[in-house]
Request: fold
Amino acid sequence: MAEYRLYCFAQSGNAYKPALMLALAGADWAPRFVDFFNGETRTPEYRAVNEMGEVPVLEHAGKRLSQSGAILHYLAARLGRFGGETDDERLEILRWILFDNHKLTSYIATLRFMIEFARTGETPVTGFLRGRVKGARHRPCRSRAARPPPPQFLQA
Reply:
């Protein structure tokens, strides 16, 4: 049995983050597929795994963690990779994880779900989300010229 077990499904960007970290660190891990699109996360059995009814969930050494940012923080400490060497570096990493979870992923993931999976078409909600995504992309650390073009699903 693998040392780490990650409850996940391929379409989840939040599950991709710890999966990528585990893979890049060479950790002994195994995915546990969660059938999100057929409602597994709403079942009592899954709610016993994560009362929030979300992925990802990481199991390791008797612990069960949810939320990608918390999982990444935990993995950095356990794996000794991608966590920074000084307090200032660790705080900077945490700052970007929180920025991503609040300002970027939350809007992009919802917009992507609505457009690609729910197939809502353009609605006032997708318009609002596009505006939030564009605002998040205007970070002071990158010039306009250095920004890659947005993914296809973000282009109106």
About this structure: Residues 107 and 129 are 6 Å apart (CA to CA). The beta strands are 4-8, 29-33, 57-60, 63-66. The first helix runs from residue 13 to 24.
